[in-house]
Structures are given as structure tokens and as C-alpha cells.
């Protein structure tokens, strides 16, 4: 697939497509054996399970749909016969606006000594007065579904729900899990923004909370006061390597958490490069082997509301040999000239997510409208691109939005689009 669009950048180099499905947009893809598991962005689609034993003809073997449109289950993890899916409010922005409306009312009442009018509240929020009614409806209805679900997938064609563990707030976002524990990023009552809650899944039908971790200042009910605006400091998710969790903490940068005592997580390393870099810290992955004689970690920022003139979200390489002296040593960027859809209205262009495991120095990283980038970090100070694949948009969308990626034991690549599309790819070394 070396086609061009209006004379623009080539759409692939050293990566070829084996197959494509117009799957509804997804938030995460994970591969185990001959099956790929896809969490979808929007209801009614929940989780799709694909048989990928023939990568040229992937086929759907099971689909879990949602009962209502207030939640989505766009993240998924699999370990053996257990699958975990998140449950999160489908429109967190509405919830945030509703919360700001409450705060605006309180501030106006304190300033004027009376109940403010709808017109005054709307003016303070900078919205039309008609926009307040759906925010009030959201507050009145509440949301009690947030959490995660545990499934038995001993027969992948017939996933069986074991339990729905409730958490709090708008629910669970991205998370990690292993054979024993789930490392859940969730809102909880009394905290500002997502924190880490670790659950013991020894009995998968009865998850047991074993500990919590948060950035100091998040525990409002405990008397802590944030030093930041809104929910700028919060956990995106952690990844475990040995007895450490590596955490992306949005505008708080990265944290390293010691869980050698799983009941008492403690911070043992940190680095924050914000606000110099505007895009939030998304994923932190400790490479499980030395690179160039160093212990290194890969970090992705997530492209969000990009400000022209500022760098797009990128992938970082950090030296983490000494946790007391964590520091960046390399970056990888993609030019807007490298994708014909880099400035397409309504889409994003910039870094998002890589596969969360590595056996050599090659990493595959999604770049939204920049597609998939293959990056070699054998020189950790100078990451080098060795291939790319930019899918053409499907489903009537204006641009591709490559969102997540995984790689199987055969070295095949599974690329998931945020809006529409699932591709099976092969690197041509």
C-alpha cells in the first residue's frame, strides 16, 4: 500500500496490510494466542472477540453489546481464561461541565448573597442558557455504573460475566492486570480525578481491594488540597514491571511506584516535564532489558487540544537507571508533512500509544492521523523510524485516527482505529 493522496506522503513503508475489517471504533486491542480482543469507543458496541488464526481472514466469534448508552467499555485486558473490561461514563465532558455548573452557582451565590439566575450561571460558564438543562439532567440522574467487569473466556466464543465491580465517579479508564492483580485507574468518592486502586483477583468472582495510591493533593476528603487546576494531576494508568508500577499521571508527568508490598504502594521516582510540554503524559513503560547499557523507559504523551506553534505529542525515552535521577535522553517526533491527514479538521495528529510489551528494540506506536510508526530505540538517545503505515479513513470519517496497537507472538501487528477500522499488518524487515 504505497499509494499517495493528492501527491502527499506515502502511506506505508516496510509495513504491509494483510487484512482489514470495518470494525466500529475502538479504544484498545490486546492479543492472546489466536484471538484479538477489542474494546469499542461508543455504545452499543462493547467488546468484540476475533479469531485471528488466519491473519488474512480475521473473523468475529463473539460480540458483547451494552444495555444502554450511558457507559462505554473501551478498554480490555486478558490473562488466561479471564477477561476484564472497564465501565466508564460515555460522556465524561458532560459530567465535568455539570460539576463546573455546580461550582459556578456556589461562587455566584457567595458573591451576591442570593441564588443566581440561569442567565448569570450560563454567562459565568461561557455557554448558552439552553445548554444548562442537559447538565442539570445529568446531575439529577447520577451515574452508578462505573467500575470494571470480569469475564470467563475459557470459551472465547461465549464470554460469561462473572462480576461487575463498582468503583465510583465516572468509573474506570485504562488499566493493567496480571494473573493475580488488577491495577485499576478509576475515580472514587472523596478523590479528585483518577487514582490507582489495586484489586486481588485470586477469586475472579469476588475482587478484593488491597490498596490505593494517588498523587498528594487528590484526596480531598482526607483534607488534601490540590496545587493544580481542575483534574490536571491524575492517573492515566500504570504498567507493572517486576515490583514496580510505571505510571502516566497526565499533567503531573510520570511516577514510579514500588509495590513489593502490594498493600502499601509508595512513590520511589518521579519526573514532570509540564507545563513546558503541553500534551499530557499517557503511558509509561519500563523496557524489560537494558538498551545501550542503560535502564530505560518509554513514555507517550497523548495528543489532545493541540496549540499551533507548540510541539505535537511525542514519544520519549527516559534513563531510569537511578530512580532518584530520572531524566529524558531522547524523543521521537513525526512531521505534519508525513501524513496527508495531519491537519484534517475534527481529527488529531500526534502520539498516543505503543504496544505494552517488548522483546527487542523495535516499538510500534500509534500517531492518530499519522497512522502507525515503527521506531527502533537501539540508540536510546536517537530513536529512528524504520517503517510506517497510515490507513485510509473508512466509515465516512475524514481522517484515520490510529488509536491502539498490539503485536502477537508471530510478530504480526494489530492496529485499531478510534473511529472505524481494524488492520492486521506485517513488518517487512
Describe the structure in brief.
The chain has helices at 92-112, 118-125, 132-141; strands spanning 12-13, 15-24, 26-32, 35-40, 45-51, 59-65, 71-72, 76-79, 82-89, 147-152, 160-166, 172-177, 181-186, 195-200, 208-213, 233-241, 244-250, 254-258, 266-271, 281-286, 296-301, 315-319, 327-332, 362-366, 372-376, 384-389, 402-407, 413-417, 420-427. By secondary structure, the chain is mainly beta.
Topology (elements, then pairings):
Layout: E1 12-13, E2 15-24, E3 26-32, E4 35-40, E5 45-51, E6 59-65, E7 71-72, E8 76-79, E9 82-89, H1 92-112, H2 118-125, H3 132-141, E10 147-152, E11 160-166, E12 172-177, E13 181-186, E14 195-200, E15 208-213, E16 233-241, E17 244-250, E18 254-258, E19 266-271, E20 281-286, E21 296-301, E22 315-319, E23 327-332, E24 362-366, E25 372-376, E26 384-389, E27 402-407, E28 413-417, E29 420-427
Antiparallel strand pairs: 1-26, 2-29, 3-4, 4-5, 5-6, 7-9, 8-9, 9-10, 10-11, 12-13, 13-14, 14-15, 16-17, 17-18, 18-19, 20-21, 21-22, 22-23, 24-25, 25-26, 27-28, 28-29
Helix pairs in contact: 1-2, 1-3
